[in-house]
Specification:
alpha/beta; six-stranded antiparallel beta sheet; five-stranded parallel beta sheet; 22 helices; about 20% strand; globular; oxidoreductase; FMN; electron transport; EC 1.8.1.2
Length: about 600
């Protein structure tokens, strides 16, 4: 029987369960559906063999090592998963929990906690860590005397508040009485090796007490029945990307636009990469060869010199083109380059963090080298630089429609500085240097914090100005393929209607077909007074609130520093205006929406 034919009379499931199951299956590809089928069958068999109760990976009443993670792009979740795997390989009982799903009241029952958390923006916690991060500062937070904790943070040292959220968590746990059992690690974007070392060290610290508790309880680790495992992940990852064909790079802004936005199509044929609307694509790029040659000239390094990068040997020129960061500047580079060159000006900056931030803000790495040339050994130059990191882009397509393709909406980063044009690392490569048909290394990054409702009847409101339209194009393709009956409302903004209405024909087509119930556009420069998406939200205040009260999910994608904050404030004002709530109650309304996964952000 097809799932679409199920009804309450024909199955042991309730109608609500049928709807949830239909929503889940619609998100899965055939391989994932087959895995779920096998998992459920194994679980049912295990329940029958154990008197209806499936075995779980618990050890008697011994307290587990609870791993709490908060992840914005998936990196912290990945580290937390590796920590879980390593702990289980030592025979330790582990509980892995997303902070968004963790009940803070459970803290008083914990004995061993590890925190794996990222930081984004101006030292802010990721979305799924916000509630716990705040709870720890309230009077409701329990005393944690006797609790042992270890914290690892992921961040980007090019930002001022590097790994601030990890520092906050450790400080707040300590204030509540918890003991830090292993030194906190604050890791930069090139974190893999250091994370592996921290995991080993942290587990060495936890293992004696965990095993003593385990033995005292008389329990032992019980394996999952029938070897049930996690869903088969793609063989292609951040560490092992897929060499995909770049099929299309098409400019979708007008000739006179102040923005250069490209629609990019990449073929995934020959890979096992799958993705769900809301996910991101990691893209590795090649640095500009002309800039690489200039760097080699400025440092008087022979392009054919052989260098070591980890376990790999290659020429310095190839390393600079393919493997090392030359655009995004960060304090660590300035410090290492200052020491290597002995530059008095740079060494002075190292002593003044505020001056350092001001210095690197307008400069890319090659600017720093250009303005402070010095003769270096090839390996010394390599050692000053960090590994090139993939750039993440919100996926702008649904596999239900494009199958073995993935689409992106890429805004070219371009600006003039110090007398020359500057381009973003990846956006410059895709928009200016990469040719259609070439190979580009990619991997998918799942984002469980930005998902369509499982129930296709649920209405959704999408706010995506500029390239923030990307995931909502994917949402609309997916809902179209599912023949979802839920209402869809899109808010889109950009400077000019004639130059910057991204995917205009598609949006108007969805509006005509009825898939899009409403579209509100804000073209800020088409009239004397600037109009933004938050203004359009306020203009539709009563109807927006009615949708929220009817169960709508609300999504924001785009700039975190200004747009997302302005939209959030507009929502607070809308709730106050239509419900009589005050500021605190309106904020609580939004927190409740977040807790129910009805208020989600994909911001950068």
């Amino acid at each position: 029987m097809l799932l679409s034919q199920l009804n309450a009379a024909a199955s042991p499931l309730s109608q609500e369960q049928v709807q949830k199951l239909q929503g889940l299956v619609a998100e899965l590809n055939p391989i994932q559906q087959a895995w779920v089928s096998g998992y459920l069958a194994a679980n049912a068999n295990a329940g029958a063999l154990t008197g209806g109760v499936a075995a779980t990976p618990a050890a008697g009443d011994a307290p587990p090592l609870t791993i709490l993670y908060g992840s914005q792009t998936g990196n912290a979740k990945g580290v937390a998963s590796k920590l879980k795997e390593q702990a289980e390989s030592r025979g330790l009982t582990v509980k892995l929990v997303n902070m968004a799903d963790y009940k803070p009241t459970a803290l008083k029952k914990e004995k061993f906690i590890t925190v794996v958390v990222s930081t984004y923006g101006e030292g802010e916690p990721p979305e799924d860590a916000e509630s716990l991060h705040e709870f720890l500062t309230t009077k409701k937070a329990p005393k944690l005397d006797g609790v042992k904790v270890a914290v690892i943070g992921l961040g980007d040292s090019s930002y001022e508040f590097f790994c601030q959220t990890a520092k906050d968590f450790e400080e707040r746990f300590n204030k509540l009485g918890a003991e830090t059992i292993f030194q906190r690690a604050d890791l930069d974007v090139d974190y893999d090796d250091e994370a592996a070392k921290w995991i080993d060290g942290a587990l060495d610290a936890f293992e004696p007490d965990l095993k003593a508790q385990q033995q005292a309880s008389g329990g032992q680790v019980v394996a999952m029945p029938f070897g049930a495992a996690a869903p088969a992940a793609s063989q292609y990852t951040k560490q092992n990307p897929f060499a995909a064909e770049l099929s299309v790079v098409q400019k979708i802004t007008g000739r006179d636009s102040t923005k250069d936005v490209r629609h990019v199509e990449i073929s995934l044929e020959g890979s096992d990469i799958t993705y769900t609307p809301g996910d991101s694509l990691g893209v590795y790029f090649l640095n500009d060869e002309a800039l690489v040659d200039e760097v080699l000239t400025l440092t008087q390094v022979d392009a054919s010199s052989t260098v070591k990068l980890g376990d790999e040997e290659l020429t310095i020129r190839d390393a600079l083109i393919e493997k090392l960061e030359l655009t995004q500047s960060y304090p660590g580079f300035v410090e290492k380059y200052a020491t290597a060159t002995g530059s008095p000006d740079l060494l002075k900056l190292v002593e003044d963090k505020a001056a350092m931030r001001e210095y690197i803000e307008p400069r890319q790495i090659f600017d720093i080298i250009r303005q402070n040339p010095a003769q270096l050994e090839a390996q010394t130059l390599v050692d000053c630089l960090r590994k090139l990191q993939a750039r993440l882009y919100s996926i702008a397509s649904s596999q239900a429609e494009v199958e073995e393709e993935v689409h992106l909406t890429v805004g070219l980063v371009e600006f003039d500085a110090f007398g020359s044009e500057h381009l973003g690392g990846c956006s410059g490569y895709l928009a200016r240097r990469a040719e259609e048909g070439c190979k580009v290394k990619v991997f998918s990054e799942h984002n469980d914090n930005f998902r369509l409702p499982a129930n296709d009847e649920t209405p959704i409101i999408m706010v995506g100005p500029g390239t923030g339209i990307a995931p909502f194009r994917a949402f609309l393709q997916e809902r179209d393929a599912r023949e979802a009956s839920g209402k869809n409302w899109l808010f889109f903004g950009n400077p000019h209607f004639t130059q910057d209405f991204l995917y205009q024909v598609e949006i108007q087509g969805y509006l005509k077909s009825g898939l899009l119930t409403k579209v509100d556009v804000a073209f800020s420069r088409d009239q004397a007074e600037k109009v933004y998406v938050q203004d359009k939200l306020r203009k539709n205040s009563q109807e927006v609130f009615a949708w929220l009260e009817a169960g709508a999910h609300f999504y924001i994608c785009g700039d975190a520093n200004r747009m997302a904050k302005d939209v959030h404030q507009a929502l607070v004002d809308i709730i106050k205006e239509n419900s009589g709530k005050d500021d605190e109650q309106a904020e609580q309304y939004l927190k409740d929406l977040r807790s129910a996964n009805r208020y989600q952000k994909d911001v950068y």
